[in-house]
Each structure stands twice: as structure tokens, then as C-alpha cells.
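cron nightly-structures :: item 1 of 1
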Amino acid sequence: MSECPICGGIGLVRVVNPEGLWVSRGCECQQMEREQRRLAAAHIPERYRHYTLDGYETAFRGADASLGRAHLTARKFVEAYPVDTAGKGLLFAGSIGVGKTHLAVGVLRRLVQERGVKGLFCDYRELLKSIQNSYNPQVQTTELELLKPVFAAEVLVLDDLGAQKPNEWVWDTVALILNTRYNDKQTTIITTNYLDLPAGTGFRTDEKGSKAARSEDTLGDRIGDRMRSRLSEMCVLVEMTGKDFRQSVKRATFG
């Protein structure tokens, strides 16, 4: 960071307080540096670092009304944090490409920048793989060391919950993470591509809107109904529907 033209790099400036006395206070450059350190510590992936609540688009042609409602809920959550949120988080649930991760990261960024929150972004599948890898005798990092920052984060974004193929170990690990944060009243913001329904209740529909014979997985199928019930206590459900945003508005192009 270049030398601040206001404080000369010492981090303090002299100002007159309401009583007319000269006092010292922290310079804005110092505050910005602390903010950047908190953002770096949140480990938001490079691909998502530009995601902000102000940059979330809801006015494009064919946008589902649920996107606007989700955007408004995210904004209100930031405004209410932490007094009126009381340790609760958000569960963004919906189809692929509707901007769930965008809103989750946007909330995290605002809380880090405006509330001084110590936050953390975790990709669900990568976290589970790292934990599994810690069981390798040649790996020095232990499961407890990997989970310590997950437990300690004031605000945790757990992205793509349910993406890992479910088994007993996966369910036990999810239970450990969610129950620990629930008991400590820590705020957890979650995204998932699965409908918030009990196991065995999801059905695909045909072109006429009728239920097809083949069922599709629900959140209950992917993380277990017990943990899905826990989530209903931990998070406010934000359902999002619509076409894949990336396929319509943000399709990759050259030039």
C-alpha cells in the first residue's frame, strides 16, 4: 500500500472533536488496510471476489420474481445483523445458476466491510475432501485443525451443500459442523442446489407439469432429514427459481 497523503503512513490524523478539542483518530487508510486483511482472511475464491449485493442483477429479461425477493432478503439481513438476526443465517436453495453463491458472497463481503465481521467461505465438497485427506498418515494437517476455523468463524458461508455423494461419514461430518455452529449460535449462510424437502419426496416433472416416475434428490436425501431439520432452526429459507443465469446473462464470450 502506498503512503497515505493524509497521515503520511503513521495511521493517525488530528481532528477537532465536537467539544472543540484537537484529538487523534485512526486514518481511513488504516481502516481500509484492516478491511482488506479481513477480506483476505475470509478466503473468498478469486472467481467470486467481485460478487457484491449491488452487483446482483434482477432486472434482466425473463428474471423470476424470486430473485428480486432473495436480493431484498439478503440486503435486509445485512441491515439487521447482528442484533435482529439472533445467530440465524440464510439458506439459499434453488436451481443451478440463479445467483445463490453471488448473494451469499455479497452478504459476507458487506458484513466484513461494514460490521467488521471475521468471516470464512468454504466450498462444501472441497472441505470434505480436505478432511478425508487428513486421514492420510503422510498429511500433517489433522481434521481438528481443518475444522477449527470453520467452527470459529463469526459468519461462515458453506457453498453447495449436498454436492458430495451422501454416505454415513458425510452425514456425520455435516452433523458435526452444523451442530457445533448451532450450539455456539454462530451465523451460517448456506447455498444448495437441492429442494428443501424431506428425503424421498422429490419428483421430476414432465413437459406438461405432471409428476414423472423418476424421483430426484432433495436436501433431505443429500444431508439427512435430521440435519435438514436442524437447518430449519439455524437459517431462514430463501428459495430461488429460474433459468440458469450464466447461460442467459453471463455466457462466456471473447472480445
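cron nightly-structures :: done
The beta strands are 12-16, 22-26, 89-94, 119-123, 155-159, 187-192, 203-205, 211-215, 235-240.
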